[in-house]
């Protein structure tokens, strides 16, 4: 007999689904966390999906909402747990990059600390109640409110062949145009890296940005989710897409100053080593930081804000 789906005190019988605003208390803050629990009629793996780790990445949130609203448990093999707005405080505040209670980037706090600040404690709750709960894990992202980007997926190579091959298969089946291997230095504390290190095959998929969501971008992510479900044999087969272009290495450039940012390239543009990428200046026009391409490659994402703070990302180049 197929098991019930048990999650944070909630129970869902086989062939049923549940939509719930789950009250949790994190570092002294009361949070209402929307969750979709879908317990398929058939036996299969458990797939956990999060979106909205960053509060202003809207297409991924809407994609997760649509999947939760439409996925039919009667035709599902296994269980799906969806947390479409994993950082409700940042989402409500329309916050860029960070979470208002402590000013930390939630996607650099995993696996978290139950006794830490708000973001650290929320990361701990999500990691232990959602991410580690699954046999597989997908984290949906996109360009933040001040970022333009090319749709791309990524996974982290742990050296565990079974985990790495499963993650690569998921990323390829998701079907975004580019596939990037995640770099430990750049993403320490990120959801998919820490999930993989804990033995859960995990991918991070990104599309959209600049505070805009539209049906076309949302559909790109939604279609990818359905392709992964089919790849994991949790739903009926769906048409495959061309394999993504693999990008083996990438470089992030960050601002060294507060000031104004004048990029000289566009997202998606191919650049060569030493090429002028733009500059950070003071408000009087004096150049504070000149930017040159550290490698050949494509501009994967680009900050589009005039305002710039020291330490903020400017762009990333992958080859």
SSE arrangement:
Elements (H helix, E strand, L loop, with lengths): L4 E3 L2 E3 L3 E11 L2 E11 L2 E9 L7 H13 L6 E7 L4 H6 L24 H12 L6 E6 L5 E3 L2 E4 L5 H14 L3 E4 L2 H4 L3 H7 L4 E5 L8 H17 L13 E3 L2 E5 L4 E5 L6 E2 L4 E6 L5 E6 L4 E7 L3 E2 L4 E6 L1
Quickly describe the structure.
By secondary structure, the protein is α+β, with helices and mostly antiparallel strands. A 9-stranded mixed β-sheet has the order 3-4-6-5-7-11-9-10-12, sandwiched between helices. Strands 8, 13, 15, 18 and 20 form a 5-stranded antiparallel β-sheet that branches. A 4-stranded antiparallel β-sheet has the order 17-16-14-19, with no helix packed on it. It has 7 helices and 20 strands.
Distance between the termini: 50 Å
Helices and strands, in order, run as: EEEEEHEHHEEEHEHHEHEEEEEEEEE
What strand order characterises the main sheet? 3-4-6-5-7-11-9-10-12
Indicate the overall shape: globular
- Compute the CA-based radius of gyration: 20 Å
What does this structure look like?
The chain is α+β, with helices and mostly antiparallel strands and 319 residues long. The chain has 2 domains: 5-246, Aminopeptidase (3-Layer(aba) Sandwich), CATH 3.40.630.10; 249-318, RNA polymerase II/Efflux pump adaptor protein, barrel-sandwich hybrid domain (OB fold (Dihydrolipoamide Acetyltransferase, E2P)), CATH 2.40.50. It has 7 helices and 20 strands. It has helices at 58-70, 88-93, 118-129, 161-174, 184-187, 191-197, 215-231, and strands at residues 5-7, 10-12, 16-26, 29-39, 42-50, 77-83, 136-141, 147-149, 152-155, 178-181, 202-206, 245-247, 250-254, 259-263, 270-271, 276-281, 287-292, 297-303, 307-308, 313-318. The longest helix is centred in the C-terminal third of the chain and has 17 residues, at 215-231. The termini are far apart. The mean pLDDT is 96.
């Amino acid at each position: 007999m197929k098991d019930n789906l048990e999650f944070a005190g909630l129970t869902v019988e086989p062939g049923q689904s549940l939509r719930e605003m789950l009250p949790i208390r994190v570092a002294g803050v009361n949070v209402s966390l929307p969750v979709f629990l879908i317990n398929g009629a058939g036996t299969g793996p458990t797939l956990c999906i999060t979106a909205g780790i960053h509060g202003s990445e809207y297409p991924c949130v809407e994609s997760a909402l649509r999947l939760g609203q439409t996925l039919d448990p009667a035709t599902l093999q296994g269980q799906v747990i969806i947390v479409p707005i994993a950082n409700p405080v940042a989402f409500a505040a329309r916050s860029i990059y960070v979470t208002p209670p402590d000013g930390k980037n939630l996607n650099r706090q995993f696996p978290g600390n139950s006794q830490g600040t708000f973001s650290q404690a929320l990361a701990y709750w999500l990691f232990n109640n959602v991410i580690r709960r699954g046999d597989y894990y997908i984290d949906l992202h996109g360009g933040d409110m001040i970022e333009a980007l090319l749709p791309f997926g990524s996974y982290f190579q742990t050296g565990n062949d079974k985990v790495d091959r499963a993650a690569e298969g998921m990323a390829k089946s998701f079907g975004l145009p580019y596939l990037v291997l995640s770099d430990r230095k750049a993403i320490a504390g990120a959801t998919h890296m820490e999930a993989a290190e804990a033995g859960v095959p995990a991918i991070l998929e990104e599309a959209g940005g600049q505070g805009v969501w539209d049906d076309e971008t949302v559909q790109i992510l939604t279609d990818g989710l359905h392709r992964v479900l089919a790849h994991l044999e949790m739903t009926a087969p769906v048409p495959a897409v061309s394999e993504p272009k693999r990008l083996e290495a990438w470089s992030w450039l960050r601002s060294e100053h507060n000031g104004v940012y004048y990029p000289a390239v566009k997202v998606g543009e191919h650049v060569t080593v030493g090429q002028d990428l733009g500059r950070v200046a003071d408000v009087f026009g004096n150049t504070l930081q000149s930017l040159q391409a550290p490698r050949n490659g494509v501009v994967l994402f680009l900050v589009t804000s005039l305002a710039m703070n020291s330490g903020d990302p400017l762009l990333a180049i992958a080859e």
